Amino acid sequence: MGFARSSRDLTDWDLFVMRHRSLPNVAVHFVSFLLFWLSPVLALAVNPLWWVGFFSSGLVGAFGHYVFKDGRVDAREATSSLQVVRFSSLMAFSFLRGRWPAEIRLVESRFADHEAGRIGADARPSTHPKPEAHT
Questions:
Q1: Which end of the chain has the least Cβ crowding within 10 Å, N or C?
Q2: Is residue 4 part of a domain?
Q3: Within a domain: residue 125?
Q4: How far apart are CA 107 and CA 123, in angstroms?
Q5: For residue range 26-81, what is the model confidence (pLDDT) as tens digits?
Q6: Residue 31's domain spans which residues?
Q7: Buried b vs exposed e over 20-47: b needs ≥16 C-beta within 10 Å?
Q8: Residue 26 three-state SS
């Protein structure tokens, strides 16, 4: 997805992916994504009742977590976090392009390595330059 992975801790993106591994849940999030981005346009162009879709889009995503038991989420995070909007949008585009399962596998591998203490969050240490030795 192009996120910098220089930290030795898991990134917010890694944690987001770990909470979105169920493809049915991701499909519900895709509906939430559509509601979030299309409802304001439809509300202005067609019918003001579409605002209900916009304001309930976060709850639709949270509903997917509860139905498909795919990680924890709280309603406040689902309805008021700009980072969640950004990550959900990136996930939706990745899902559309068929790349979401590969992103899940990549993050699961990094998470397993992190949990085993083998390395930090980055399971591909060659992607970062080695620090220069100080003399």
A1: C
A2: no
A3: no
A4: 9
A5: 999 999 999 999 999 999 999 999 999 999 998 899 899 889 887 777 666 666 77
A6: 12-118
A7: bbbeebbebbbbbbebbeebeebbeeee
A8: helix
Per-residue pLDDT tens over the stretch 11-33: 889 989 999 999 999 999 999 99
Q: How many domains does the chain have?
A: 1
Position with higher pLDDT, 29 vs 7 = 29
Q: Given this model, what pLDDT does residue 75 score?
A: 66
Using CA atoms, how far apart are residues 110 and 105, in angstroms rounded to an integer? 9
Token duo for residue 15: 């944690």
Which of 94-98, 112-116, 130-134 has the least mean pLDDT? 130-134
The CB density around residue 88, as the number of other CB atoms within 10 Å, is: 23
CA–CA separation, 34 vs 28, rounded Å?
10
pLDDT over 60 (residue 120): no
Please state, in angstroms and rounded to a whole number, the distance separating the CA atoms of residues 14 and 7: 12
The reply to whether 3 falls in a domain is no
Which has the closest alpha carbon to 87: 11, 6, 35? Answer: 11
- Is position 132 within any domain? no
